[in-house]
Specification:
Layout: H1 15-36, H2 43-56, E1 60-64, H3 67-77, E2 85-88, H4 95-102, E3 106-109, H5 121-126, E4 132-136, H6 147-157, E5 160-164, E6 172-173, E7 176-177, E8 184-188, E9 202-206, H7 209-218, E10 223-224, E11 227-231, H8 242-272, E12 295-298, H9 302-311, H10 341-349, E13 350-353, H11 361-374
Parallel strand pairs: 2-3, 2-4, 4-5, 5-8
Antiparallel strand pairs: 1-9, 6-7, 8-9, 10-11, 12-13
The structure holds pyridoxal-5'-phosphate (PLP).
C-alpha cells in the first residue's frame, strides 16, 4: 500500500518531529553538562530560572523535579498545611489534588464553568469555610481561569491563590501571564507539555520573595539558604537536574514561536469545525490568550467520534474521562457526582484533537473533514 499524507497517522502530540529539529543542539548541551561534573544546582538551573521568570513576567522562578512537586512546594511555601482546606476543580489531573493532600491539607471541590471547563468563581464562594486557606485554579487545556474574580474572592477572604500552570505556558489573562497573577504558579515540563523536558521537571513561579525563598529550601530537603547543614523546614529532594535545565534552556528559545504555531492551528480548527454540532474552545477576550496545550471540543456521541477518528488514523484523547471525585482513590470520601453537573457533562463530551506546533494546515483539514463525515455534514 502506498503511504500518502492522507493515510499517515496523525498523533495527538509529535515529540519526535520537534526533537529531531533541535537534537544536535540538545546532544551537545547534554555532553557539556555531563563533562562539567556539576549535575545538580549548577549554572544551567540558575540561568534557566532567570530566563523562564523573564519570559513568564514574574520576579522569581524556582526549578524542581516535576509539576506535581511544583504544586506541593508552592502550596507549602504559601503556608498551606495540616488542618487547612484548599478549594480546587474536580476536572483536572490527579496531581492537583494529591499535592494538596501531601501537604496535610484537605481538598474541597467547586464545580467548573461549562464553557472553559475551569473552576467557576461563583461556586468557590459557596465552599469557603473557616478552614479555607487557599484556592487552586487550573488553567485547563491552556485556557486561563477567571483570575480576576478568583483574586477578588481571595482578597475578600484573605486566601492564597496557587495557579496550576501545567498546561498554560504563555497563556495570558487580561494582559498578564498565568503563573504570575496568584501568589504562586506551578509549571510542569513533562515531555508532552508546551515546554517539555527530556524527562520530568517543573518550576514554581512567584512575585513574592518569601514564597521564592521557602520554595528554594523546600526543594532542597528544607536546607537554610545560607547554611549547608541547617534546616528551616522539612522539605524533600525535589530538585531539577542540570541536564534537564540545559535542555529546557534550548527549548525555551522556541516557546513563543511554538505557541504561535499552536494558536494558528487552533484558528484553522475553529474555522474547519464551524457549523458542526461540536463546541469549539471558547474565544479569548482582548488581553487574553490560550496556550493550546490541547485543542478540546465538546462532542455529542464523543466516544463514537473518537473511534471513527481512530479508524482513520487520527489520534484523540479524553482529558478527563473520570472526574476526580469519582476516582477509586477518593471513593468513600462522601462526594456525589450530582453535585458537579458541569463536570459530569464535560467528562462525557470533552475530546482533545491532535495539537502540536508542527501540525500542518493539511492535517487539521483532514481531522475536520473526518469530523464532518462522522456527523454526516
Ligand atoms: C493540570 C496538571 N497539573 C499537574 C500536573 C503534574 O505535572 P507533572 O506530570 O510534571 O508532575 C499535570 C501533568 O500532567 C497536569 O496536567
Amino acid at each position: 500500500m502506498t503511504t500518502t499524507t492522507a493515510t499517515i497517522p496523525i498523533p495527538l502530540f509529535n515529540l519526535k518531529q520537534q526533537h529531531a529539529a533541535i537534537q544536535k543542539e540538545i546532544n551537545e548541551a547534554v555532553v557539556r553538562v555531563l563533562e562539567s561534573m556539576q549535575w545538580i544546582l549548577g549554572p544551567e538551573n540558575a540561568a534557566f530560572e532567570k530566563e523562564f521568570a523573564a519570559m513568564m513576567g514574574v520576579k522569581y522562578c524556582v526549578t524542581c523535579s516535576s509539576g506535581a512537586a511544583a504544586l506541593q512546594i508552592a502550596l507549602n511555601a504559601c503556608g498551606v498545611g495540616p488542618g487547612d482546606e484548599v478549594i480546587t476543580t474536580p476536572f483536572t489531573f490527579i496531581a492537583t489534588t494529591s499535592s494538596i493532600t501531601l501537604t496535610g491539607a484537605k481538598f474541597v471541590f467547586a464545580d467548573i464553568d461549562p464553557a472553559a471547563c475551569n473552576i467557576d468563581p461563583k461556586q468557590i464562594e459557596k465552599k469557603i469555610t473557616k478552614k479555607t486557606k487557599a484556592i487552586l485554579p487550573v488553567h485547563l487545556y491552556g485556557y486561563p481561569a477567571d483570575m480576576g474574580a478568583i483574586m477578588e474572592i481571595a482578597k475578600k477572604h484573605n486566601l492564597k491563590v496557587i495557579e496550576d500552570c501545567a498546561q498554560s505556558h504563555l497563556a495570558e489573562y487580561n494582559g498578564r501571564m498565568t503563573g504570575g497573577i496568584g501568589h504562586a504558579g506551578a509549571f510542569s515540563f513533562y515531555p508532552s507539555k508546551n515546554l517539555g523536558a527530556c524527562g520530568d521537571a517543573g518550576a514554581v513561579t512567584t512575585n513574592d520573595e518569601t514564597v521564592a525563598k521557602a520554595a528554594l529550601s523546600l526543594r532542597h530537603c528544607g536546607r537554610m539558604l545560607d547554611k549547608a547543614y541547617e534546616y528551616c523546614c522539612e522539605g524533600s529532594t525535589l530538585r531539577m537536574d542540570e541536564v534537564q535545565a540545559a535542555i529546557l534552556r534550548i527549548k525555551l528559545r522556541h516557546l513563543k514561536n511554538w505557541t504561535e504555531m499552536r494558536r494558528k492551528a487552533a484558528k484553522l480548527y475553529d474555522a474547519g469545525l464551524k457549523g458542526l454540532p461540536v463546541t469549539t474552545p471558547p474565544a479569548t477576550k482582548a488581553g487574553w490568550s490560550q496556550s493550546f496545550y490541547v485543542y478540546t471540543i465538546k462532542a455529542p456521541r464523543r466516544d463514537e467520534l473518537a473511534a471513527h477518528l481512530k479508524s482513520r488514523g487520527i489520534a484523540s484523547a479524553i482529558y478527563y474521562p473520570l472526574a476526580l471525585y469519582s476516582q477509586p482513590v477518593y471513593k468513600g470520601m462522601g462526594f456525589h457526582a450530582a453535585d458537579y453537573p458541569n463536570t459530569e457533562r464535560a467528562t462525557a463530551e470533552a475530546l482533545s484533537l491532535p495539537m502540536f506546533p508542527e501540525l500542518s494546515a493539511e492535517q487539521v483539514e483532514r481531522v475536520c473533514r473526518e469530523i464532518r463525515a462522522f456527523y454526516g455534514k
